[in-house]
Amino acid sequence: MFTSQSSFQDSVDGDEKDTELETEGCLTDPVTTPQQSSNWYYCLYFYQSSRLQGADDSEAGSHRKPASTPGDEFSLSLGDTNLPAEAEPELQSYISRRLSKGALLGGMGNIATVSLSVPEQSLGCYCCLVQQDRLQDQAGAAGGISTDFVICFLGGSEKGLEHFRLELDTYVQGLQSSLSPQLSDLETHIRPYLSSWYEECVMHIQRVVQLTQDKVSFLLHAALSHSPVEVVGGEDKVKKDIDRFLNAASFQGLIHEDTTAATLCNALSEEPQKDVTIDCSQQQPQFLNAGSNRFCESWVQAFLNGAEGGNPFLLRQILENFKLKAIQDLNSLKRLIQQAEMNHYALFRCYVFLKHCGNGDVLLQNVKVEHAEMPEAHRIVQVLEEFMYGAPLASSN
Predict the structure, then answer these.
(1) CB 3.0-4.6 Å disulfide test: which of 158, 167, 288, 327 passes with 201?
(2) Under a CB-based contact definition with an 8 Å cutoff, are residues 349 and 310 in contact?
């Protein structure tokens, strides 16, 4: 069965929250408040910790002990930030307490709500421990002292940032190779990169909806059906935005079977499916070989309303709801197919469900691949295909 991707994005921090800097029970729902913050902040810290000589990687990657424990001390110092001067020491104190509890794990972001001396007062805070390559670390370390980094992004709310956890983790990883104790590329690369986190990690969905308008249904359909998409005639930023949108809207990471995009694209037909081409050379993008269906089209207005409201967190929530509904329908179809193995009436119910859900082509495509190695279920899917192919499954532009 499938589960919503957002359900896998819960924080790994099981420790009790720090009451001094974290608000409890008063989180603002990003869906109900269009503009939560007018500023977006970042902080980069040097994190130096002592390690036992000869400790292996598994020990180095384990939870840190409290700073007061002899032989396991650490220091945290500021590398760069755009936070107000009065707010940065408060954040540093908060991060230090999290590190002393072992609440930050290398390469895995932690999201919480912090209260700082900024106009917004309470902000969502994403922080991630970035560990240097262990070979370089050991070669350059003296006396068992290692230098790692802590990157923090602040803005919006905790709930809002949770929806973008994967994008933030990936964004931080993109900077890892550029970090060094000297921060030699601070002005030319590191600072511009950190300053752009909100535009790059959060705003891409809104930009894509504003670009495609009512044709966003073609992208939604391509994402669910794993159709290859090629963007021509546009800037690299547009191509990256569309690629991120497709990843966020797809079942990627939720299909247990080891299936490739090409296999999924060919699931409904033995003939290879043509790439969906988006021509962005004009003001309004043109779609070629694109498909859609009633299910995707029924969500278009919600996306347009969200983009008009200017709240990227609302748009991400809409996208998650869209995907969740598709997953729920897919699970319903799989249960009906399982029942149909011993009940012919359930087979008819499968057909009726596919006809009325508005997303029959996508659902049938996914279950066909998933049940390819299950003879009984595969025969049922073949029967459903015979019935469904008698009616149009997807409308082309």
Answers:
(1) 167
(2) no
